[in-house]
Specification:
The chain is mainly alpha-helical. It is 70% helix and 0% strand. Helix 7 runs antiparallel to helix 8. The protein is globular and about 55 Å long. 38% of the residues are buried.
Length: 236
């Protein structure tokens, strides 16, 4: 059975009683405790629910936001109704989003690259209407904090999705203006390694993630080239 088929079966037990509060309680408690043997299902349910709450962060959840999630995660047509069910219930309000973010963080506390992939997805959902609403920014900052990203790392990730910070090479690399040349080189190499398509393929992420990472890698390379020129650094 595919991961989406497992999700549809597991999710069915989450909706007895219906209210969003029950969903939060079930996912934070019974569901995760009973399904620790299959972290893939746990992760996927949590990501779908967190994405649904991201869609509601600006107060208005739209079909375009679900379409962004469906496209990035490659939800099969035959499983779309089941996934939409979780997404729609979660997006009734943002209450409890910390539970989902916390569970994802726990599952991948030793793999921040996966957490960044999830945060990238949430940013893409926020971009569905072309505007980063203040409430969306607060939501994303909180999720980034739960995931363990420092403020400068959050600004770096944000800068690959939204201008005007997109033009600041230091923000894109997530380093301070006072960073020395060695820190710049070390950070640049790490970001290239984490966002290289081969690394994502090895992590087994959806193909659409690879497109996002390719765009991000281009921004990282451009940012480092700008700093190289400004500082007169030799190419790595």
């Amino acid at each position: 059975m595919s991961i989406w088929g497992k999700v549809s079966g597991a999710a069915a037990g989450l909706f007895v009683g219906g209210p969003v509060g029950a969903l939060v309680g079930a996912v934070a408690g019974h569901f995760f405790l009973d399904r620790d043997e299959d972290p893939g299902v746990t992760f996927t349910i949590a990501v779908v629910a967190l994405a649904g709450k991201m869609a509601k962060a600006d107060g208005v959840a739209t079909e375009a936001e679900f379409e962004v999630f469906r496209r990035i995660f490659g939800v099969p047509v035959q499983e779309e109704a089941n996934v939409r069910r979780v997404f729609n219930l979660a997006r009734q309000d943002i209450a409890g989003f910390e539970h989902y973010a916390g569970q994802i963080a726990q599952l991948f506390r030793d793999n921040p690259a996966v957490l960044e992939d999830v945060l990238d997805t949430l940013f893409e959902i926020a971009k569905a209407d072309g505007v980063l609403h203040p409430c969306e920014a607060q939501f994303l900052e909180k999720v980034a904090d739960i995931f363990g990203f420092a403020p400068n790392e959050y600004r770096r990730i944000r800068a690959t999705h939204f201008a005007p910070e997109l033009t600041d090479p230091y923000v894109i690399l997530g380093v301070s203006y006072a960073a020395d040349d060695e820190e710049l080189r070390h950070t640049y190499r790490r970001l290239v390694r984490e966002n290289h398509p081969d690394s994502l393929i090895a992590r087994g992420v959806p193909a659409e993630f690879i497109k996002l990472a390719t765009d991000k890698l281009a921004a990282i390379n451009n940012a480092y080239e700008k700093i190289q020129q400004e500082r007169g650094l030799k190419p790595i």
